[in-house]
Amino acid sequence: MLTLACGALELTLAPETGGSIARFTVRHEEGMQELLRPLPAGNSRPTPLDMACYPLVPFSGRITDAHFYYGGRDIHLPPDEICVPHAIHGRGWRTSWDVAEQGPARARLRFAHEAGDPAWPWPWSFEAEQIFELSEKSLTVTIRLTNRADAPMPGGLGLHPFFEARSKARLKTHLPFVWESGADGIPLGLVSTPEKWRFDEPRPMKDVEVDHCFSGSAGRFAIAWAGRPFAIRMEAEGARHAIVYAPPGEDFFCAEPVSHAPDAVNRPEAPDVTGLKILVPGETMTLRCLFGVERL
Question: Across the chain, which distance is largest between two alpha carbons, in Å?
Fold first, then answer.
């Protein structure tokens, strides 16, 4: 793992575990506040699911039955163990990333996928990178995906942050449309967001249960905790969609900026609805998210 710091902010990264964030904290007069759900202490063999945040690349969410057609190709991916028989969240979170650059308050991680890799038979070569930059008042995460193949490639990006202490947290964000889905998390269609999943005003998360993708997001999220001195203000670019995940019986939730809806490669809607991006050879797409840390 490697640690970045600037002023009162400290960030711990785990390049070897999905290029993930393991911990993000702020010091203050009375101690220290966790800003994301931290990797549990003493966990010597963590998985990405134990981490504070991990990247979604080259796609976000599920792909039905881990299968789709594109460009005359019939593509079968390995089902992920957390959602068999579907694939989920691409490759980045399930592989090690290289440390390409590291400084006191900045780091760049990179991984490259080669077409024909039997471990993950995505048929296009691509390169992904994450840049983490700390200032005294914020963390900026920039994630990029570049098509290194000689043919167009479908692609997408996202970040999957976990926020702890859901029982004390409030979320504010504007998410006007939601993808209805079945029990398997596969979208069925896009509708106006019902009242039970609206966060236009700061809303306590303790009684909210949701696991859906929303569209029409401006990429802005405000998260605050009762009794804690600092709040988070997220501002994401390149993410017109968002996943909000608040599972029953857990004291965490996720607010994930993503570039497209789940299963976008199989959806009948146009790309301007699903958010699916087609990258021509050599093209790069970018998602950038600022986590502003604000004193209440």
Answer: 60
CA dist., res. 191 & res. 277, Å (int): 22
Question: 205-229: b or e for each residue (b if 16 or more CB lie within 10 Å)?
Answer: beebebebbbbebebebbbbbeebe
Q: Which amino acid is at 61?
A: G
Query: How many domains are contained in the chain?
Result: 1
Judge whether residue 30 has pLDDT over 90: no
* Residue 123's CATH number: 2.70.98.10
Q: Which amino acid is at 38?
A: P
**DSSP, res 205:** S
Cα 231 from Cα 79, distance rounded (Å):
37
Residue 162: CB atoms within 10 Å: 22
Residue 48 pLDDT class (50, 70, 90 cuts): very high
For residue 278, list its beta bridge partners.
154
Query: Cα dihedral sign for 109, 114, 117, 120?
Result: positive
**Domain extent for 67:** 2-295
Which DSSP symbol is given to 68? Answer: E
Q: Classify 292 as helix, strand or coil.
A: strand
Query: Cα-Cα-Cα-Cα dihedral of 288, 187, 214, 33, to 10°?
Result: -70
Q: What gap in Å lies between CA 254 and CA 245, rounded to an integer?
A: 5
Q: Is the pTM of this model over 0.85?
A: yes
Looking at the chain, the number of H-run helices and the number of E-run strands are 1, 26
